[in-house]
């Protein structure tokens, strides 16, 4: 381990673990697999980042407990923003967090199926899933009319907002689909909206997370990349 990296923080887990004991890994997207909060960057393009980011930060810390309401408040501020702002964020600002590609490739090589569950937007999640070879995806679909964001979301067959409870449902449904148990799931996230999913998984991982999330995760990665998770597993 590099001398400038703090140790992983572990609770109720004793390494080495075996990857063969797990069959599915579910990931949050914004600030977990990727380095940005997409909604904040869309707002920045539109000149409204301060207002939107303040709500995002409060929601991630768990100070705003109703994620759906916090998202609706932020989306309302984006009404009328040109849809071209999405392309600018995707091509100029979206970057994977360190180790994301390495971790996902290693998990897939070990036979795990990957799930992306995001309170963010399908426009970005589709790209992330394709690049990382993710098998299942659930995220929110922005409503666009006449080339502009309406400030709303499109209704999908499961609902319109992927909140913490929906993340948990999606992870468990995918596990059931492949014949896996909750104990065979790994859940990785950084914000309060990930806690319900993390609490249902056999291994919960907080990545550069808010204090409330670090305190409840079995593994907290506070420095370095996502691929540091692999150090918990035996060869």
TrEMBL record:
Origin superkingdom: Bacteria
GO CC terms, sorted: cytoplasm
EC top class named in words: hydrolase
SUPFAM superfamilies: HAD-like
GO process annotations (BP): L-serine biosynthetic process
A Pfam short name: HAD
Known pathway: Amino-acid biosynthesis; L-serine biosynthesis; L-serine from 3-phospho-D-glycerate: step 3/3
Cofactors (names): Mg(2+)
GO molecular function: L-phosphoserine phosphatase activity; magnesium ion binding
InterPro entries in UniProt: HAD-like_SerB (IPR050582), HAD-like_sf (IPR036412), HAD_sf (IPR023214), PSP (IPR004469)
Record-linked PANTHER family: PHOSPHOSERINE PHOSPHATASE
Similarity comment: Belongs to the HAD-like hydrolase superfamily. SerB family.
Protein name: Phosphoserine phosphatase
Organism: Roseateles depolymerans
């Amino acid at each position: 381990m590099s001398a400038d990296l703090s140790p992983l923080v572990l609770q109720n887990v004793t390494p080495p673990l075996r990857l063969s004991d797990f069959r599915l890994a579910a990931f949050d997207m914004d600030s977990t697999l990727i380095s940005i909060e997409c909604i904040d960057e869309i707002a920045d393009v539109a000149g409204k980042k301060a207002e939107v980011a303040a709500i995002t930060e409060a929601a991630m810390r768990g100070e705003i407990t109703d994620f759906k309401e916090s998202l609706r408040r932020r989306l309302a501020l984006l009404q009328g923003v040109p849809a071209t702002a999405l392309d600018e964020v995707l091509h100029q600002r979206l970057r994977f967090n360190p180790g994301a590609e390495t971790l996902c490739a290693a998990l897939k090589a070990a036979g795990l199926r990957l799930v992306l569950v995001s309170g963010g937007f399908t426009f970005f999640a589709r790209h992330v899933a394709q690049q990382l070879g993710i098998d299942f995806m659930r995220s929110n679909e922005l409503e666009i009319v006449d080339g502009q964001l309406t400030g709303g979301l499109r209704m999908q067959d499961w609902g319109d907002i992927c909140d913490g409870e929906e993340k948990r449902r999606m992870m468990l449904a995918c596990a059931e689909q492949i014949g896996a148990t909750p104990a065979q799931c790994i859940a990785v996230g950084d914000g309060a909206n990930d806690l319900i999913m993390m609490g249902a998984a056999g291994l919960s991982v907080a990545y550069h997370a808010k204090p409330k999330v670090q305190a409840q995760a079995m593994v907290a990665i506070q420095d370095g990349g996502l691929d540091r998770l692999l150090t918990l597993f035996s060869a």
